Amino acid sequence: MLPAEREQLIITFLKANKKATIHDLATEFNVHEATIRRDLNKLEQYNQIKRTHGGVVLNNTEVWDELNFDDRETSYYHEKVAIGQHAVTFVEDNDTLFIDSGSTTIHFARALTQKHNLTIITNDIHIATVLKSSSNQVIVTGGVLYKDNYLLNGMITNEILQRFNPNKLFLATPALDLEKGVTHFNDALAATKIQMVKQAKEVYVLTDSSKFDKVSLYHVCPTSKVDVLITDQSNTDIDWEAYTDVFNKIVPVKVNI
């Protein structure tokens, strides 16, 4: 078993059992305790776990999965609508865009139908369907279909993304942190986001503030790569001054409920 596979299984084990000792995990996965210690060191580095007296528990700031698209779309709905609608103000005629798959970027796509002469590349068939009624050119990447989330991903997707160099990327994320930047819990989905960031001239992150102070295992990009962060300020637990200091530009949106 590869270390990355075992690390994910450790997370699954802790999610089910709440806590474990090194001995418990070594027995569960039939490896030496030294191997488990190395795994835990890596998971701790990415803030996924916390060491406790005599064991280890999950870090509640860690994001290791998420709901399917239909459930996510209704969560923080008004915030996502406001973010998506405001993000359109950063789009100009004749722009070329990557639109990442997500429950916030779908609202951005709906607002884009009023724009003209855009070239839009997306790995989300739901977004492509929304945009089919617009006058813009829409390119769908292809790839393996993730049925619960309407997205296309994998080797084919990443190879196609390499052929484009758009002006702007509108990126979604389940986790955002001052130190770790943009992260994701799925290595395959993270790889596609990394490719989008690499190809695009400017990076716009669209995310509601419930995703702040969260970290997942796989790194996507540092805060320095984000040109504009568009979000709400509903989360009163966030140190907004610290985020303003770290990110190049934060655009708070007004949420109408």
Q: Kindly provide the name of the CATH class of the largest domain.
A: Alpha Beta
Proportion of residues in extended strands: 15-25%
Instruction: Work out the number of β strands.
Output: 15
Run of helices and strands: HEHHEEHHEHEHEEEHEEEHEEEHE
Shape: globular
Number of domains: 2
Widest β-sheet, arrangement of strands = 6-5-4-9-12-14-15
Organism: Staphylococcus caeli
Domain HTH deoR-type: 3-58
Keywords: Lactose metabolism, Transcription, Transcription regulation
InterPro entries: Carb_Metab_HTH_regulators, DeoR-like_C, DeoR_HTH, NagB/RpiA_transferase-like, WH-like_DNA-bd_sf, WH_DNA-bd_sf
Summarize the structure.
By secondary structure, this protein is an alpha/beta fold. It has helices at 3-17, 22-29, 33-45, 69-74, 77-87, 105-112, 125-131, 155-161, 187-199, 240-246; strands spanning 19-20, 49-52, 55-58, 96-99, 119-122, 137-140, 144-146, 151-153, 168-171, 175-177, 181-184, 202-206, 218-221, 228-231, 250-252.
Explain the layout of strands and helices.
Blueprint: H1 3-17, E1 19-20, H2 22-29, H3 33-45, E2 49-52, E3 55-58, H4 69-74, H5 77-87, E4 96-99, H6 105-112, E5 119-122, H7 125-131, E6 137-140, E7 144-146, E8 151-153, H8 155-161, E9 168-171, E10 175-177, E11 181-184, H9 187-199, E12 202-206, E13 218-221, E14 228-231, H10 240-246, E15 250-252
Parallel strand pairs: 4-5, 4-9, 5-6, 9-12, 12-14, 14-15
Antiparallel strand pairs: 1-3, 2-3, 7-8, 10-11, 11-13
